[in-house]
Amino acid sequence: xxxxxxxxxxxxxxxxxxxxxxxxxxxxxIFCGDGESDLQTIRxxxxxxxxxxxxxxxxxxxxxxxxxxxxxxxxxxxxxxxHLLGVKQGYQRLINMGRSVSADVVVFGHTHKQFTSVxxxxxxxxxxxxxxxxxxxxxxxxxDSDQVKVTEYPHDEYGxxxxxxxxxxxxxxxx
Length: 175
Hints:
Blueprint: E1 2-6, H1 13-22, E2 28-31, H2 36-45, E3 50-53, E4 67-72, E5 75-80, H3 92-100, E6 105-107, E7 114-119, E8 122-127, E9 136-140, E10 147-153, E11 161-164
Parallel strand pairs: 1-2, 2-3, 5-6, 6-8
Antiparallel strand pairs: 1-9, 4-5, 7-8, 9-10, 10-11
């Protein structure tokens, strides 16, 4: 399964549309906030996708929650914008939150900086800002393999990150 992860669109819907057209086989779109109205437009244009979305600090009259959790291909995803966990000052509170909800994958935004790392058994990533620099990430995973691959766009100077993450038997979105 292919997942497209965005954050911080800040009214740059065209950048989101270009990424979706480029990765039209993505079944799930994760949105980490700051552009709820943008994502509402995208949802109307691409109703066949599954969406996992949260609000950010610039989504003043938002209806999306601050955090969201979902099982996808046997992995527990935890999504947040990150501003309430102080991600601009450091990641420890976010890592602790990911651990407290037993997340396998933590996806966040707010800093506008792409970041992918492994913290113990947890994949920890920020897709960057789709609105400033058209940065986003693609996550590829399957029910049949422990391997998860993350590719950052537009420039993946270090190559994709591949990590093995355990799969769970809870109900999930599958391929």
